[in-house]
Amino acid sequence: MNIVIVGAGDVGFHLAKLLSFESKNIYVIDLNEDKLDYINNHIDVITIKGDATLPGVLQQAGIDEADLLLTVTESQNTNFTIAVIGKRLGAKKTFARLNNPELVHSGAVDLQEIGLDFVISPEELASDEIVSLMEMSIFNESIAFEGGKFLILGAKIEAQAPVTGMSLSEIRKRFNRHDFLVAAIKRVGSDKVIIPRGDTVLQVNDQVYFSVPSENFKYLYEILGKEAYEIRDVMILGGSTIGEKTAEKLVEKGFRVKLIEIDKKTAYEISERLPQVLVIHGDGRDVELLEEEHIEQMDAFVAVTGNSETNILSCLVAKNKGVAKTVALVENIDYIQISQTIGIDTLINKKLLAAGSIFAHVREGDIVAVANIFKLDAELLEFRVNDKSKVVDRRIREIKFPRHSVVTGVIRSDKVFMPVGDFVLKSGDKIIILAVPEVIHEVEELFK
Fold first, then answer.
1. For the stretch 304-325, what's the b/e string if a residue is b when 16 or more beta carbons lie within 10 angstroms of its beta carbon?
2. Which CATH fold would you assign to the domain 2-120?
3. Within a 10 A sphere around the Cβ of 45, how many other Cβ atoms?
4. Which one, out of 64, 219, 402, 419, has a CA that is 20 to 30 A from the CA of 395?
5. Cα 417 to Cα 409: distance, rounded to the nearest angstrom
């Protein structure tokens, strides 16, 4: 597969990194020589310095033989323009990053007709992620499959958790439950994904990912030593596109929302568009203002200003005031790696969300859905077992899944199974697998 990526920023870099594990022919185009040098020093791809709005530069990257053109610069207009030009020059599929979600959903323009096969809004993805987190109180990451029938839930192991210091086999014996699975662990101080075995011991501050049928996720409360709580009152700091879209979606779901915006004009405009949201003009960094607005009565605090440090510090203030759940938007991807110890429940990065979402469109095999766990640098892939699959009519234990992958669940006729070694896969089954990028291609081969 030949892929051309325009934009060597965070989104482009992570896409190139994910795709490079599969030995695809990848070209990365950008005007910034420093960014291209960084990519060259870290990833085995071909870089081209130039303006991709010029047909000659795209042709230099073999656009006429490109299976996929990904335009992911910071400029929406640039992405739009290059995708249209690339399609005319022969790219089979085009994918454009558009920052304005209204252009994606308005329907005013037939995007495919003018050359955009897929479009994505990082802001829309970030707001969807935040809303999902508000609906899962004690978990700091939530990914749903099959319309919510099957869940992957992330949570931090705290000192008081009853499972701290226990092996997975000991946990199963103590709680006598077989309707969940510890799929992966991210350990403080390590970049590696741990695919656990029965003798793996859970440690304090481990970020643990559980796979569980949706009707059983509440049993995890006892395992984690936490009590469920309902989130109803949410304070949002920042009237950005993400802040406004999040507020809009939350009130539609019945949440009570306060939004603080420092710019008076922006605050007024949001209050006009969202009359159900209490919009406050003020500086959210002002602790006195937060206290006046009764931050201590909030169930959740979401900081989505354009400044990562402001978002982090304001969330720490909210935690100090007793707010149960905090979410901060960060631009610096390096912050994600310290999210387990920083004291904030969830850090999100819209660029990583975008890269993970785009990555789903270049997968191979009979894939139903893909989700990215950016804290883990791992992917969740939902495959459909067909009559030609190498896994059909075989027991799980007989299939040579790569070491750094794990079967997290199987859906058969709308019923969720937590499969053990003797479980036999049948044609029509949907199987969800967690895998690190290096072995995804091996997993895909099993389902071709």
1. bbeebebbbebbbbbbebebeb
2. Rossmann fold (3.40.50)
3. 21
4. 219
5. 6
**How large is the average pLDDT for residues 254-258?**
96
Give the model confidence (pLDDT) of 122-137 as tens digits: 888 899 989 988 988 7
Architecture of domain 144-224: 2-Layer Sandwich (3.30)
- Cα–Cα distances in Å, from 327 out to 35, 62, 230, 395? 29, 42, 16, 41
Each residue of 21-63: pLDDT tens digit? 766 789 999 999 999 999 999 999 999 999 999 999 999 999 9
Q: Are 185 and 207 in contact (CB under 8 A)?
A: yes
pTM for the model: 0.83
Helices (H), 66-209: 76-88, 101-105, 111-114, 122-134, 168-175
Q: If you classify domain 126-131+230-351 with CATH, what class do you get? A: alpha beta
| Ranges of CATH 3.40.50.720 domains, the chain | 2-120, 126-131+230-351
Q: Does domain 355-445 have CATH number 3.40.50.11540?
A: no
Rg (CA), the chain: 23
